[in-house]
């Protein structure tokens, strides 16, 4: 069992080299069921413990262990400190969807394209046919506008 220091609703669970895993005191019993050690991966430190899950030896990270949401979502910390595992500091990593649906402006067919491309206004149509139709309508619209302009001018003069 790790040594620890309780300070109100925050508890520091002592690891090696003077490093602490910071948790809510409410999670202390749960945390003390396991032996925690310091892990360093790519200059980032976090706390981990060896557990037997479904009969298999598994290394479990403290932030993962303490966050309620499980499944495939990646748990991360708000302040970037993986040793700060208070409930307020744990969050799920939200990945931006790189692809999204857009509706063809001519026929309304739903298509998928890159989000940045849709934002740039590059995806207005679903196919070459609709693209041609869109251009045709654009030309017709401009000609119509010109006609109206002439009509207006003829009324004025
Ligand atoms: Zn279309």
Characterization of this structure:
It is a single chain. With 157 residues, the chain is α+β, with helices and mostly antiparallel strands. It is built from four helices and ten strands; from the N terminus they run βββαβββαββββαα. The chain folds into two domains: 89 residues, Homing Intron 3 (I-Ppo) Encoded Endonuclease, Chain A, CATH 3.90.75; 58 residues. The protein has a three-stranded antiparallel β-sheet with strand order 1-2-3, with no helix packed on it. Bound molecules: zinc ion. Zinc ion binds next to loops. The site of zinc ion has 8 residues, from loops.
Q: Residue share in helices?
A: 25-40%
Alpha-carbon Rg, integer? 30 Å
What is the H/E string?
EEEHEEEHEEEEHH
**Average residue-wise pLDDT:** 89
Give the C-level CATH assignment of the largest domain. Answer: Alpha Beta
Strand order of the largest sheet: 1-2-3
Low-pLDDT stretches: none
Q: Estimate what percentage of residues fall within beta strands.
A: 25-35%
Architecture of the largest domain, CATH level 2?
Alpha-Beta Complex
What is the terminal-to-terminal distance?
96 Å
Total number of β-strand segments?
A: 10
What structural class do you assign from the helix and strand content?
A: alpha+beta
Oligomeric status of the shown chains? single chain
Helical element count? 4
The tally of domains stands at 2
Bound molecules: zinc ion
């Amino acid at each position: 069992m790790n040594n620890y220091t309780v300070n109100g609703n925050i508890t520091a669970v002592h690891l090696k080299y003077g490093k602490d895993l910071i948790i809510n005191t409410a999670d202390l019993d749960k945390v003390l069921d396991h032996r925690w050690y310091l892990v360093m991966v790519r200059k980032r430190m976090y706390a981990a413990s060896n557990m037997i899950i479904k009969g298999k030896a598994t290394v479990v990270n403290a932030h993962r262990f303490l966050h309620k949401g499980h499944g495939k979502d990646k748990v991360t910390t708000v302040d970037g400190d993986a040793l700060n595992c208070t409930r307020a500091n744990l969050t799920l990593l939200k990945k931006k969807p790189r692809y999204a649906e857009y509706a063809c402006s001519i026929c309304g067919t739903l298509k998928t394209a890159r989000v940045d491309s849709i934002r740039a206004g590059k995806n207005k149509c679903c196919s070459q046919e609709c693209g041609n139709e869109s251009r045709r309508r654009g030309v017709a619209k401009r000609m119509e506008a010109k006609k109206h302009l002439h009509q207006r001018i003829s009324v004025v003069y």
